[in-house]
Amino acid sequence: MRVELIEMSKDPLDIIYSAARQCYSSKFSFDIFKKSKKIEKRKKEEFVKEIVNSGHESVLEHVKFTFAVEGVSRALTHQLVRHRIASYSQQSQRYVKAEDFNYIIPPTVEKDPVLKKYFVEEMERIKETYKKMIERYKEIGIEGEKANQDARYILPNAVETKIVITMNARELLHFFKVRCCARAQWEIRELAYKMLEICKKKLPAVFEKAGPKCVFLGYCPEGEKFTCGKYPLKKDVIKEG
């Protein structure tokens, strides 16, 4: 899996600072933004941290991050696009031929020789069937995207894909709360942590405490049945209080 930052909002601290100040000021936000350049960075960081800690996150929506991702499965991206406050551009199986597709092998399959044998054999069988379908389509006068769009129906969730993701800072905080959790599926959790690592480096004032919900809350909100045990349950925290 490879995750790279394509671009992020320029001057994110100044954007958040001026947006927050606008809510309580009669001044024009553009003028506030220009003046914020002269404010010491440490003071702006402290201001933004207070915003995050207080839960007033709407002003974070003005800052966005765009990531390039490859080496992930369609099983992952099916989960990813459920986060609807975001923009996605994914490699098309209609316009890009998949005759020799790469595929993602789950760790549980990778470490068991028997499971891996079943898995790889099935992937190779699907490849061959896909090729035969494309060849047959050509014989009956159907080529290109018209052939690809129907042949792709046999492709597995394991097929490797590439995707561009754009999320604002507030949505990223939510994404990390849900997908960094031990309950999240392993592959999207790996993606979330790679994205989080980038965000922490680029904008620590917002993301220094980001991660699964328990990290921010100090307790696990998932309940006894689903907790991983790293943090106490909410009911136990209340008892101690």
Radius of gyration: 23 Å
| CATH hierarchy class name of the largest domain | Alpha Beta
CATH-defined architecture of the largest domain? 2-Layer Sandwich
Amino-to-carboxy terminus distance? 43 Å
The percent range for helix content is: 40-55%
Elements, N to C (H/E): EHHHEHEHHHEHHHHH
Overall, the morphology is flat
Strand order of the largest sheet: 1-2-4-3
**How much strand content do the residues show?**
5-15%
Q: Helix/strand/pairing class, anyone?
A: alpha+beta
**Number of separate structural domains:** 3
Low-confidence stretches: none
Structural summary, described in words:
This protein has helices at residues 12-22, 29-36, 41-54, 74-80, 107-110, 113-139, 145-151, 169-179, 186-202, 204-207, 213-217, 234-240; strands spanning 2-8, 64-73, 86-90, 160-168. 51% of the residues lie in helices and 13% in strands. The chain is built from 12 helices and 4 strands, in the order βαααβαβαααβααααα. It is flat, with a radius of gyration of 23 Å. The two termini are 43 Å apart. It has a 4-stranded antiparallel β-sheet. By secondary structure, it is α+β, with helices and mostly antiparallel strands. It has 3 domains: 2-88 and 160-210, Gyrase A, domain 2 (2-Layer Sandwich); 94-154, no CATH class; 212-241, no CATH class.
